[in-house]
Amino acid sequence: MNRKIKSIGWSVLAFGVLVSGGWSAPQEKPKKSSRPLIIFDTDMGPDYDDVGAITLLYALEKKGECEILATIASDAHPSIAPTIEVFNRYFGRPDMPVGIASAGSPGLTAPNNWNDSLVTRFLKKKKAEGYPAAVEVYRKVLAKQADNSVTIVTVGFVSNIRDLLNSKADAFSGLSGVNLVKKKVKSWVAMAGGFPQGKEFNVEKDAEASFEAFSKWPKPILFSGFEIGQHIMTGAGVARMDINKSPVAWAYRYNLKTYDKNPQPNRPSWDQTAVLCAVRGAGKYFYVNGPGKFIADRQGFNTWNPEINAEHYFITHKYPYERTAAVIENLMGFEP
Predict the structure, then answer these.
(1) CA–CA gap between residue 274 and residue 56 (Å, rounded)
(2) In 3D, which of 330, 296, 300, 328 has the Cα closest to residue 312?
(3) Which of 81, 158, 253, 323 has the CB geometry, 3.0–4.6 Å to 319, for a possible disulfide?
(4) How far apart are the C-alpha atoms of 176 and 181, rounded to whole Å?
(5) Which has the closest alpha carbon to 65: 288, 331, 248?
(6) Three-state DSSP class for 62?
(7) Per-residue pLDDT tens for 228-282?
(8) In this structure, what are the phi and psi dihedrals at residue 133, rounded to the nearest 5 degrees?
(9) Cα–Cα distance measured from residue 333 to residue 51, given in angstroms and rounded to the nearest whole number
(10) What is the residue-wise DSSP string for 269-293?
(11) Taking a C-beta distance cutoff of 8 angstroms, is the pair 95, 156 a contact?
């Protein structure tokens, strides 16, 4: 995501306790996992830090630190879902659910067409055919999980979240979208916004969905704002790996050379920070501020109100940027 922001800042407070709620018809009770259960919702383009983020997620799953339940596209461009499938297959999970973005979601790709090039090279499939709708995947997966157990990680537009909240009872669950979230979701970790105010790509590009999703969401949200990943530069190490075997290496080498007007040595790590926080906990790498309320208006501008406890939190840097970058770069070097 070519993210732009107008102004940033923060205050330092403390992180709160996650809560549960909701009800559904009696059924066999799923066992609650001790590992974070992750639904990963990504635009996977037009930027390419999403590639680093999904690699982190699979690396952490391999280490036994989390379990991935589904991968969902928030970008409606026809190359996005197949791009996600490329990485699922590379990491040995061809059966991993891939949901396509809701109708009306932004449909964007990069000027260098890296998504199409990657799919052609590694999958030979370009169109989003045969993938279920994002909301269907959300409802089907959430309905099967233990109460208060799922962490949703969004590193793109929140169109799917808005549509999940507005969804009705179906064959997967007799609950409305809001009540299904209340019952099954533990928290939402979002790469979104800027603090204490800003206008950031993920929030702005579907501003109406952002306005609705962040205001209606009934469980805690942790934000990694633009100003966090902007300073954590990674990708050079990955780009030196074998591009014939690894779509991760190919994506970084190709994009570092062609994404911007001039070749770049590294790329900001916006999306990777959200994954790191969702799996290992934000406090290990960052300070956590809140509670407060993240407010997004219909023009895509956001502000932070520390006087309202909406169970919203945001992170600020704790360590020098290079220290966090080294952790992320190391995880991005994961090969299946």
Answers:
(1) 10
(2) 296
(3) 323
(4) 9
(5) 331
(6) helix
(7) 999 999 999 999 999 999 999 999 999 999 999 999 999 999 999 999 999 999 9
(8) -70, 150
(9) 12
(10) -HHHHHHHHHHH-GGGTEEEEEEEE
(11) no
**3-class DSSP assignment, residue 312:** strand
222: closest CA among 200, 195, 182, 198? 195
What is the three-state SS of 111-151? CCCHHHHHHHHHCCCCCCCCCCEHHHHHHHHHHCCCCCCEE
Q: Which of 90, 79, 86, 81 is nearest to 112 (CA)?
A: 79
Rounded to an integer, the average pLDDT of 103-124 is 93
CA gyration radius for the chain?
Answer: 18
Identify the DSSP state of 172.
Answer: S
Retrieve residue 180's tokens.
């299904």
Say if residues 8 and 196 touch (Cβ distance below 8 Å). yes
Q: How many residues are there in the chain? A: 336
b/e code 226-259 from CB counts within 10 Å (16+ = b): bbbbbebbbbbebbebebeebbbbbbbbbbbebb
Does the CA dihedral 323-243-191-132 come out positive or negative?
negative
Instruction: Tell me the one-letter amino acid at 166.
Output: N
CB 50 within 8 A of CB 271: yes
- Is residue 22 within 8 A of residue 39, CB to CB? The reply is no
Q: Which residue has the tokens 């999970």?
A: 93
The Cα 323–Cα 113 span in angstroms is 32
The DSSP line for 176-228 is: -HHHHHHHHEEEEEEE---SSEEE-HHHHTTHHHHHHHHHH--S-EEEE-HHH
| pLDDT tens-digit map of 2-25 | 454 433 333 333 333 332 332 233
Place of tokens 């001790």: 34
